[in-house]
Structures are given as structure tokens and as C-alpha cells.
Amino acid sequence: MNIAFDGRPLVDGEYRGLSRYTIELIKALQNKYNNAVNIFVYSPVPIDPSFRKFIEIKEVVFQANREILWEQVELPKQLSRYGVDVFHSTGNRGLPAWRVCKYVLTLHDMIETMPKFVERGPLKSYLRRKYADYISVNAANKIVTVSEHSKKDIIKYWNIPNEKVVVIYEAASDVYFNPVHRNEIASVSNKYGLPSEYVLYLGGFDKKKNVNALVSAYRLLTSEVPRLVLAGERKWDFGCIKNIIEEYGLSERIITPGRIDDEDLPALYQGALAFIYPSLYEGFGLQLLEAMASGIPVLASDRTCFPEVLNGAGLLFDPGKSENIAENILAVCNDRDLRNELSNRSKERAKDFSWEKTAIETMSVYNNVVNIRKTCN
């Protein structure tokens, strides 16, 4: 089978979010099916060289005067030229209206329909996204999403049949399951100026992440509670968060090391006393799964997909109440038995997810849509 992917999530070299999902899926498909599939990646510029070490692909690079022409005119021509059976766009949009093969879309969540979390931006860009969303959802033979919660949102918003949307979970990379030596943990902690004990948050600082509520919770806790590490790139609303930290006089108790190198993430997780995620909306929440695979206690918001992903493996709190967040942090920090119990639950739950399983279920979707074509012909 000739399977093609939209390579646009892979051109900037940042191994986060959409690029991580795309790379891990392609890698798992190749590991599982080896010579049974031919993988093509289509992009307007070459994909970042750092990604080439992970995957073996046929890269097809071609350009157009505008992105919309690349997507809607040139891309279908190239798909036909190379005899592609299934084209998979993993970045929420990107499918052509002109159907030349079977199309699969991964739609991770419906966050962009929520103006309280996402600013519309310039009108031209907004209209371009809305157009691309409409085309992609309607052109897709199947839509893959990453949680039952996201599936409900997609069906409700787009008014599409239940059977068109398939839930296939993401997974944590195998590196997070491997124990990290305490010397390496100490080295990584020293690299980023971290204390010997800390509660960890890792992620963005945009509105939906609700980091301000976590900071407010720490205002309610005494200095005996281990310090809070807010790790992640210092962008989006980071400036506002930093101002709140200073306003509350928490600069000594809350550390903001910035972006963490990918190779340091397993040690960062395993060095933490617990991981906390106060987000108000996520399609899946991959950091939760990475923390669980690392075997540390997990505390998370009781909203959207989190109860589904945790399935009893962690503590849930009301993200709108700083008092409730503080209570849960205090409970985990003060109770060693509770931490051990949550750590064991985390590791066991994380075993339910794997990229091999994701690849198998995704291949089933490919086979399904290709068989539909053969039946119709």
C-alpha cells in the first residue's frame, strides 16, 4: 500500500505536538509493517534533517505560488502521479477538495472553535483556516481523533455520522518507560537549576493551560511544600504568568527553566515528586501519559479528556478552584503511601497505550477506506 503524509508539520524541526504525532506514527507503521507499506511525505520545502534519523520515507517536495494552491491544486496532481492509495493529514486540516485517492484526517480536538481559548487573529488567516477545516472534514473518508471526548466534540460541531470518526489513542515514547539513573537525574536538575524535590508542570502557557490557577494554588501552600517547576517555552502568556509569580512573591518557590531539551525529558519527569496538569481543554494530553510512563504520581484537571486518559490512575481536581488544586498537591506531597500507590497506578495505566497499537489501529483505518474504494469500483 502507498501511504502519503502531509509533511508540513515536519518542516520546522520542533519535535512537539503535531510533528511528534506524525513522526511516531510513521515510525511505528514502518516498524510494524516494514516492506508492506511505502511511505511518502509531501511538503513545499524539505522536512527538517533532524527528523530523517527517525523515519525512512520517499520525500516529495514541490512548490506553488500560494499555500492554498499547493494544497488544492498541486498536491492532488502529485498524489496521482505517485499512485498513492491513502493520503493522511495529521495536522487537523490540509486535505484537498479534489479526491484523487482515499483521505484520512487526524483531527486532534476542537479547540479552535472556542474563542475564549483561541484568538481569531487576522481575518485573512482566520478565513483560510475555516475554509481548510470545512474542506478537510468533508473530503475525509475517515477522521481519526485521539479521545472519546474529542470525538463527541467533532460530531456535535460538524454534524457528521458517528461511524466517520474513529478514536485511536496516542502513546508515550518507549524512552519514558526506561528508568533513568539517579546521576543523570541530578545532572539534568543541575543543568536547569532545579531543586532536589519539585512538583512538575510541563507544557505551554496559553490561556487554556490554566497555569495562573496553579500559581494561585501555590500562594495557598506553605514553604514546606516542594517548589513548583513550570517547564516549557517562555511564550504565549508566559509574561503574564511571570508577573503573577512576582506579584504573589513566589519567585523563590516557583522556577521557570524554559524549554527542556527532548533528551532531558525522561530525567525531568522521573526527578519530580509529582506531575500536575491544570489545563481546561485538551484533545489527549500527551504529557500526562509521559509522566505516567515515567512512574510518577499524576494530578490533573477533571475536564475534557483527562478522566478518560487517567482512568483512575491519578488524582483529579477542579481546575477552576485554586483551593482544590492546593489540597491535592498537599495530599500527594505529605503522603508517601499515596505517592507510591499513584506511581504504581500510573505505570500500569501507561502500559495500555503504545505506538504499535496506534499503528495497528491506524492501518485498519487505511485498509477500511481502500476496501471501500475497491468495492465501489
SS-based class: alpha/beta
Can you say what the CATH homologous superfamily of the largest domain is? Glycogen Phosphorylase B
Give the termini separation. Answer: 17 Å
Number of domains: 2
Shape: globular
**Which segments are poorly predicted (pLDDT under 50) over 5 or more consecutive residues?**
none
Q: Which class of the largest domain in CATH terms?
A: Alpha Beta
Number of contiguous helices: 13
Rg (C-alpha, Å): 22 Å
Could you give the count of β-strands? Answer: 13
The strand order across the widest sheet is: 3-2-1-4-5-6-7
Element string (H = helix, E = strand): EHEEHEEHEHEHEHEHEHEHEHEHHH
Main sheet characteristics: 7 strands, parallel
Overview of this structure, please?
The protein has 2 domains: 2-171 and 355-376, Glycogen Phosphorylase B (Rossmann fold, 3-Layer(aba) Sandwich); 174-350, Rossmann fold (3-Layer(aba) Sandwich). Helices cover 42% and strands 15% of the residues. It is built from 13 helices and 13 strands. The strands form 2 sheets. A 7-stranded parallel beta sheet has the order 3-2-1-4-5-6-7, sandwiched between helices. A 6-stranded parallel beta sheet has the order 10-9-8-11-12-13, sandwiched between helices. It is globular, with a radius of gyration of 22 Å.
